[in-house]
Specification:
The protein is an alpha/beta fold and 493 residues long. The protein has 2 domains: 6-250 and 453-479, Aldehyde Dehydrogenase, Chain A, domain 1, CATH 3.40.605; 253-438, Aldehyde Dehydrogenase, Chain A, domain 2 (3-Layer(aba) Sandwich), CATH 3.40.309. It is 37% helix and 21% strand. It contains 15 helices and 20 strands. The protein has helices at residues 42-59, 63-79, 81-92, 96-113, 116-119, 155-166, 180-192, 207-215, 228-240, 263-275, 296-307, 328-343, 398-406, 421-430, 466-472, and strands at residues 7-9, 12-14, 20-26, 31-38, 124-129, 132-140, 143-147, 170-174, 200-202, 219-225, 244-248, 253-257, 285-290, 347-350, 369-372, 389-392, 413-417, 435-438, 458-459, 474-482. Strand 17, helix 14 (421-430) and strand 18 (435-438) form a beta-alpha-beta unit. Bound molecules: nicotinamide-adenine-dinucleotide. Residues 147-152, 156, 174, 176-177, 206-207, 210, 225-227, 230, 248-251, 282, 384, 386, 412, 451, 453, 457 line the site of nicotinamide-adenine-dinucleotide (NAD).
Length: 493
């Protein structure tokens, strides 16, 4: 398999126009797989010209025909499911099952996109006034751009481009420079599915390319997913240049645990949520908030199961339970956060620092870590660590738990584990975030619902996925028509 990182402009895979590049690691081994060119703004000019040229014909392609391309794309994703999963594990480091899970979620969006004819259908009313009929139609915007993060190399791009393209827009994807290969693979499948050249383009780079996408006059809308600081910056830049923008950011997700919940079920769900994808998920539970003084059995079970998690290579071993983090800086940053929490008085009850994997001594491994009795002032309760670190903050009652969660500047998800319906209801209503799990560790909605961040976890009005995604990628037109009475055409129209 070639690991050359290239742009897709029209139907041509082209080389880079920049001199700088960034490493693409195999995080399991800590060796470079390839490098991503960090290009200059010219590449956006070329890609947007290609996309703008392809737009008129694609806009006029009947929605059912556009949908058929995505039916074929779906079949190709199923055909190459394992190949793509292997590529994701290779460049991102997540386990094969985690990679499979994200492709499955992406496919669900493609399936949803296949319903485009009814999704973009408008409304009509006869006789809005006498002899006057009204109807609405939804039309595409033009050239749209998507900028994605490293942690879901397939799923996050697929939150964006299937709906953008099936609605009749043409598209430029700028994947994370850390995981460019899975994006290229998707582009190859789109071409094979019969997408006309220029409808989907791929460019690589860092800030210069992102800024160019957010400001280029040919681009109508920008979808961004990444850290909050960059999300805010891209949102401000794109909207100040007259573009639609939806920008998902980072998160700090709280999991409240009431003593009436089943200890083992909770432990398994929290482990999946906190340490799945090595904690590199914007829906990862990073703070556990046990309520009351009856939670010792829950915490013991959680510690025991966490201590037993096997950390290993994911590039070759499809059965590894937990993989490495994305790169050397991430490993150092996460371990430094654990050091700091310990200095502040937190008790590191499961310690993942310095984790070694025997056949991969240079891999970027951090084992799952639990820090108990974290102080109120600790940055662990406020800042996104984005690694396999779970802070435990014990509180006395549910009100205090909600208050703690609501102090966060973020607002992606919050979870409660309980067998008390009244407590769950109170929590779901009071917690200040966009996605709530009740006895569900990762309340990330499927393709049918919006991915619904609030506060500093999302900038914009319309979220990705679901009908909000369709609204984002289309604009509504209201058409009023009046015709002369039949037989009176000579006097009228
Ligand atoms: P990141 O912000 O570093 O990068 C995201 C994208 O922005 C990449 O394509 C990158 O090239 C580009 N970029 C980076 N710095 C930039 C800058 N200064 N100016 C312009 N563009 C820049 O994020 P990441 O480390 O790749 O991904 C992890 C982050 O993404 C976490 O904060 C995570 O919570 C967040 N995330 C959010 C969601 C969500 O739906 N809210 C989903 C997945 C990940």
């Amino acid at each position: 398999m070639s690991f050359a990182v290239k742009n897709l402009i029209g139907e041509a895979w082209t080389g880079a126009n920049g001199t700088e590049s960034a490493p693409v690691w195999n995080p399991s081994l800590g060796v470079e797989l390839t490098r991503t060119p960090l290009q200059d703004a010219n590449v956006v000019d070329q890609a947007s010209e290609s996309a703008a040229t392809a737009f008129p014909a694609w806009r006029d392609t009947p929605p059912l025909e556009r949908a058929r391309v995505f039916f074929r794309f779906r079949d190709l994703l199923e055909r190459d499911f394992e190949k793509l999963a292997q590529l994701i594990s290779l460049e991102n480091g997540k386990t094969r099952d985690e990679a499979r899970g994200e492709i499955r979620r992406g496919i669900e969006v493609v399936e949803f996109a296949g319903g485009v004819p009814s999704l973009v259908m408008g409304q009509s009313l006869e006789n809005v006034a006498r002899g006057l009929d009204g109807r609405t139609i939804r039309q595409p915007l033009g050239v749209c751009a998507g900028i994605s993060p490293f942690n879901f190399p397939a799923m996050v791009p697929m939150w964006i481009y299937p709906l953008a393209v099936v609605c009749g827009n043409t598209f430029i994807l700028k994947p994370s420079e850390r995981v460019p290969l899975s994006a290229q693979f998707q582009a190859e499948l789109l071409l094979e599915a019969g997408l006309p050249p220029g409808v989907f383009n791929v460019v690589h780079g860092g800030r210069e390319v992102v800024d160019a996408l957010a400001t280029h006059p040919r681009i109508a809308a920008v979808s961004f997913v990444g850290s909050s600081q960059v999300a805010r910056q891209v949102y401000q830049l794109a909207t100040s240049h007259g573009k639609r923008c939806q920008a998902g950011g980072g998160a700090k997700n709280f999991t409240v645990l009431l003593p009436d919940a089943n200890p083992e079920a909770v432990a398994r769900a929290v482990i999946g949520s906190s340490f799945g994808c090595a904690g590199q998920r914007c829906m990862a539970s990073s703070v556990l908030v046990p309520v009351g003084d009856q939670i010792a059995p829950h915490l013991e079970c959680l510690q025991e199961l966490t201590g037993a998690i096997e950390v290993g290579r994911t590039d070759l071993d499809p059965a590894a339970e937990m993989g490495p983090v994305i790169g050397p800086e991430a490993k150092s940053r996460i371990e430094a956060a654990i050091d700091r929490a310990e200095t502040e008085g937190g008790e590191v009850v499961v310690d993942g620092r310095g984790r070694q994997v025997s056949d991969a001594p240079d891999g970027f491994y951090v084992g799952p870590t639990i820090i108990d009795r974290v102080q109120y002032e600790s940055p662990l309760l406020r800042e996104e660590i984005f690694g396999p670190v779970l802070a435990v903050k014990r509180v006395d009652d549910l009100e205090e738990a909600v208050k703690l969660a609501n102090q966060s500047n973020y607002g992606n998800g919050a979870v409660i584990f309980t067998s008390d319906g009244g407590a769950a209801r109170q929590f779901a209503s009071a917690v200040n975030c966009g996605m709530v799990g009740i006895n569900v560790g990762v309340p990330a909605p499927t393709a049918l619902f919006p991915f619904n961040g609030w506060n500093g976890s999302f900038f914009g009005d319309l979220h990705m996925q679901g009908t909000e995604g369709v609204q984002f990628f289309t604009q509504q037109k209201v058409i009023l028509s009046r015709w002369a009475e039949f037989g009176q055409r000579r006097q009228g129209w």
